Amino acid sequence: MKNPLDSLGQTILCGVVIAVILALVANALQINADWWRFFFRWLHVLSGVMWIGLLWYFNFVQAVNMPKVPAEQRPTIIKHILPDALFWFRWAALSTVVTGLILAWLNNYVADALALGFIDNVPKDRAIGIGMWLGLIMAFNVWFIIWPNQQKVMGLVEVSAEERPKAARMAGVTSRFNTMLSVPMLYFMVSAQNIF
After folding, report:
1. Whether this model's pTM surpasses 0.85
2. Is pLDDT of 180 > 90?
């Protein structure tokens, strides 16, 4: 029998099975409106961990270590690791936004939060709204600035030799900008659930 930990897909499937079994044992799988709100919050957190985890990997690990990699080995990273990392990065960003908006809709605060609490003057809606807008800005940056420029860096979009470093710089600076925004975004997302 093959070890399920040898396959990422089987590992995730095992994690889901364990979660379901434990939820059944703990009597934490009562499917009703509250459970659906919880379920989308859980999906939102899972997606957000993947997204921000990769963002921080790019900025705390890859960006600072690429200059240390011998120049002749860098194309291997760009060709083999970067495409997969960017695939999960951009789809995790989209999944985080979609599950977050569904969660806000299920909890009846999507309009008030997007209006930054100015409609209902509720501090919790203002806090989650700030987090939502920062997340939306970051997701926009992923899909419309980082990803198009990384396609140029990876050679998926043909550009001149002069354009490639400019694309790398734009993708890098925008990724760093998103890293900066991730700090207040996470603060406001968590504060909305714990302070108010």
Report:
1. yes
2. yes
